Amino acid sequence: MIRVTLPPHLRTLAQVGWEVQLQVEGQATQRSVLDALEAQYPMLRGTIRDHGTQTRRPFLRFFACEEDLSHESPDAPLPDAVASGAEPLIILGAIAGG
Amino acid sequence: MSKVRVLVGTRKGAFVLESDGKREKWEVSGPHFAGWEIYHVKGSPADPNRIYASQSSGWFGQVIQRSNDGGKTWEIPGGGPQPGPGGMPAGQSNKFAYDTSAETGKPLTTHQWYDGTQHPWEFKRVWHLEPSHTEPDTVYAGIEDAALFRSTDGGKSWHELAGLRGHGTGPKWQPGAGGMCLHTVILDPSDPDRIYIAISAAGAFRTDDGGQTWRPINHGLHSQYIPDPNAEVGHCVHHIAMHPSRPNVLFMQKHWDVMRSDDAGDSWKEVSGNLPTDFGFVIDVHAHEPETIYVVPIKSDGEHYPPEGKLRVYRSRTGGNEWEALTKGLPQSNCYVNVLRDAMAVDSLDSCGVYFGTTGGQVYASADAGDNWSPIVRDLPAVLSVEVQTLP
Predict the structure, then answer these.
(1) Which of A11, A32, B1, B64 is the most exposed place for a label (fewest CB within 10 A)?
(2) Mean pLDDT over residues B241-247, rounded?
(3) How far is CA B169 from each of CA B108, B172, B173, B234, rounded to the nearest angstrom?
(4) Interface contacts A/B by beta carbons within 8 Å
């Protein structure tokens, strides 16, 4: 079970609470977790990564275990604590006015 | 008794304002989609309970919302649980992919950037949603960077009408201060194959074959701020309005100049007349008097507020040139708001109602064609768009 924390506006959009839990097939990577997230909550497609290029939207960052994973390869394994469900993958919106 | 429903898009959410035909007491619902920019909300003429909304954010991109009950509840088309194999792909309602296929002929990769260099087309947001006159599930989207898309499945999926970007002048289009947006879509109610669109800063365009081929319709526009003031494209058209009974007559608020065409845009003439300034964004036509038009003059492109701090709607009953200021109920001192291009609309009750919203968060209404005004609401977030539905 993988835990993912969403920023408030995406929680509203997906009609979920602070954290969602996902079943991820195979190795837990940014790509596999986001694939599972978008499969379970299709309304989030295009809001975290670009529809076409699948790149992270510029005003969003990925954190876990007090590390910034935003610039890691989308296919790099996530930390063991995320893969085991001990820690969440945090999707965070930039603090940039608003 | 008839009712009116005013659909308001703001910087921080959408609001629905409803009243009976007297238009004196209003019920306000919202914010819907709180915290998101709502560039446009518009109802289907074929089914007034069907409403489309463009929701966007610098963080999370574009979302399309749809209501089937007049704005009480909303859904993301196709955004629910994934259907089984062979079903419609879910989560595509915010996918606006430019058509680069060889089949449609002319994949276009660049337009002009602010500095004159070429720049790739990049989807930013949906500025305007224009539902079909006859099919509730058909809706057009004008987007930034400028292109026209159409959905025929109620907003679940979108396909570009690529003939517009591909017709040849695209590399000369450039963004205005608000971005390179396709902000105006007018469907000819008497001819389903004729569509008018406008782009800032490229100009106006028309198709007569349902969107397959397009041509610029900017003859007569004169813009001193571009290298060739009479160029075929490059004009910063702010908005166009049409009365449904006379689809060949168009009224335009250009960056500067209020213009009129009597031949479906083939030629334009200036009708700014005695306006205090002919800069502005909105323009609209009275529901029952095709020669009665409205604008809100703004001081200049460098000072986006009313001249002299007086918020005045100007009305012409002669199709332009002769204008009268409408001031009753509007602030006549220290008012420095703007009225953006999609933020004026009219209802079609016997005594035509006129509505507009400001960047200061007021939505003003007149139930007597502009003679008297009062605010429906005063303190919304900055208003981006106003549309009106007249209901039985």
Answers:
(1) B1
(2) 97
(3) 10, 6, 7, 9
(4) 62
| A80: helix, strand or coil | helix
Residue contact B61–A57, C-beta within 8 A: yes
Q: Do A42 and B95 touch (CB under 8 A)?
A: no
- Å between A87 CA and nearest CA of chain B: 24
Residue spans of the domains in chain B: they are 36-80+91-149+164-197
Tell me the mean pLDDT in the region B296-307. 97
By CA distance, what is A13's nearest residue in B? B33
Residue B58 corresponds to which amino acid? G
Average pLDDT over residues B368-372: 98
Instruction: Name the token pair of A41.
Output: 């909550």
Instruction: Give the whole-angstrom CA distance, residue B185 versus residue B357.
Output: 20
Residues B60, A48: C-beta atoms closer than 8 Å: yes
- Contact indicator for B120, B110 with CB cutoff of 8 Å: yes
Q: Is pLDDT of B351 > 60? A: yes
User: Smallest CA–CA separation between A78 and chain B, in Å?
Assistant: 23
pLDDT digits (tens, 9 = 90+) for B131-190: 999 999 999 999 999 999 999 999 999 999 999 998 889 999 999 888 999 999 999 999
**Domain map (residue ranges) of chain A:** 2-93
Please name the residue of chain A whose CA is at the shortest distance from the CA of residue B35. A9
Name the residue among B60, B78, B90 with its Cβ closest to that of A47.
B60
Kindly tell me if the per-residue pLDDT of A52 is higher than 80. Answer: yes
| CATH no. for A2-93 | 3.10.20.30
Closest-CA distance of chain B to residue A51, Å? 6
- From the list B185, B88, B84, the residue with the least C-alpha distance to B131 is B185
As a whole number of angstroms, the distance between CA A19 and CA A5 comes to 5
CB contact under 8 A, B76 and A47: no
